[in-house]
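Can you make up a polypeptide sequence alongside its tokenized fold?
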Amino acid sequence: MPSILDIKFGARDIIMINNINNSQNTTSSKTLFKNNYYLASIGILVASAGLIITRVLYGLGVFDGLPDALFDFLGSFIIQIIFITGGGLIALLVQQRLNNKNRLNLEGGVSLKKRFLDMGFRLPRIYLIPLSFVLGILFLIMTAGVSFINTIILLMFGYNFPSSAPEAVGGVGLFLLALFNSAVLPGVCEEFLNRGLILRGLRDTMRDKYAIIISALLFGLMHANIRQTLYTFAGGIVLAIITIKTRSILPAMIIHFMNNGVAVYLEHASYNGWIGGNLDSFLESHFLLAVVLWVVFTALFIAAIYFIVKAEDKHYQKKDQNAQQENSQILLPHQTPFGAFFVRNAPLYKPKLEDKVIMYTSVFLMTLVTILTFYMGLF
């Protein structure tokens, strides 16, 4: 029969083991959060630098001799695949390989699959998939109104809108190519970077409400065009909220695809005489009706987002409550108009100044290019 002294030592040993495990888990989490932040920084830096390089190449006329369709495809491929997706994805794979080789690194047990799951690469609840296709159309209407407001503001400052290079339009073949270039690639690649790497990295260093706003701001600046900054910022907020609340990046991908895809269709429909091809001219000639429709459909869009947030909150409420009980010192409920977010009492990883250099450099580059597009439009 064990003595009281043996029992005391046994209890002490259990406490010490638990403390060691907790310390290891905390260290492992902080390492992972730090790596996620670096991935976000590298991803946005490569994307911003690549966008600038591509614009310079096109501005110098390097690809001018190509057919219009190939011209458009090459531009989309370089920007979306090589720079927006390639930089962050290669950094993720290299980082994961180095972590797995380092046996002393406590993050070695975190698989690549787990990291993709943490970024939201999982199926959402089934009702969200068809609903996201409808939301994509409403999203286009909402952002079109915001874009119109942005246009009025720029005109008030004396901005002259340059004529944009026309996209190759034509029959079904060119339409499908344009759909791939302007809808499929951005829907997958831009969401991987913005609602995947960037949003995940920011959420590991700050509360969700700040991560939503900053990721949306980076999304707006990443377009490096003053004409797109406002509505992409507004859209980025919505897409970030949906991604966080649904625990999945797929709804944001579908919405992004539908937003761009419908715009591509309307452009080709106008050229080919398809159904809906005269929608733009009709709304321009019935401005008051367009405003009323925008208010109605935007209200429907906001109501749908509110419904999704409430439905997802209810679905995950038990899981979130369990997480709160298990991590009472880490998670705190934070009520917002879009439901309850469980936020950390303090950031689990606080980047130092040297950690922020890459992110700050990216923001500087994108802000500079955006300001230059505004400056050039004044003359």
